[in-house]
């Protein structure tokens, strides 16, 4: 932050963008690991993993950072993000209620296989592993927290807050200093 505004301190366009089947990139991982080492961030706040490598939380932990993940939708448990089937029916994240497939909302339809129960299980397993090293989790409602915990069993409930105020205060974090964190530096992960 500089004069109360987020300031970009580094950026890079990947030669091969992240894609949803692998959801990792050696180029991304090497770039971010270099930034984490170069800028010596103490806190990494990850707002979303779409278009990011699933290795991001682990890279931040390996760099000695405190890692906070905030949930703003249900992307980590379903590529539809709103837990809707193709027919528009809300299945709520309960795979026993899923009667068909879902449509990925953040990726082009031809970038992943049909998103039925098997693919969603695989999707969740990868996100569960990726997020298990985070130090803290936050979302804005108890019902969202309950759905996410049901779909991501590696997350320890004691590390997961459902406070609207906690989510709001985390949103101030960006590249640089965060006003309510004193001198701690933070890295805010955002893909555009």
In short:
By secondary structure, the chain is an alpha/beta fold. The chain has five helices and six strands; from the N terminus they run H-E-H-E-H-E-H-E-H-E-E.
Question: Could you describe the 3D structure shown?
Answer:
- The chain is an alpha/beta fold and 192 residues long.
- It has one domain (26-189).
- It is built from five helices and six strands; from the N terminus they run αβαβαβαβαββ.
- It has helices spanning 26-39, 56-62, 117-131, 142-151, 164-170, and strands at 43-46, 66-70, 136-138, 160-161, 176-177, 185-189.
- It has a six-stranded mixed beta sheet.
- Strand 3, helix 4 and strand 4 form a beta-alpha-beta unit.
- Mean pLDDT is 86; it is low at 167-186.
Topology:
Elements: H1 26-39, E1 43-46, H2 56-62, E2 66-70, H3 117-131, E3 136-138, H4 142-151, E4 160-161, H5 164-170, E5 176-177, E6 185-189
Parallel strand pairs: 1-2, 1-6, 2-3, 3-4
Antiparallel strand pairs: 5-6
Tell me the number of structural domains: 1
Main structural class: alpha/beta
Major beta sheet, strand line-up? 4-3-2-1-6-5
Number of strands: 6
The tally of helices reads: 5
Shape, per Cα inertia axes: globular
State the share of residues found in helices, binned by percent. Answer: 25-40%
Biggest sheet record: 6 strands, mixed
* Rg, alpha carbons: 17 Å
How would you state the average pLDDT, rounded? 86
**End-to-end distance:** 19 Å
The poorly predicted ranges are 167-186
Classify the beta-strand content into a percent band: 5-15%
Order of helices and strands: HEHEHEHEHEE
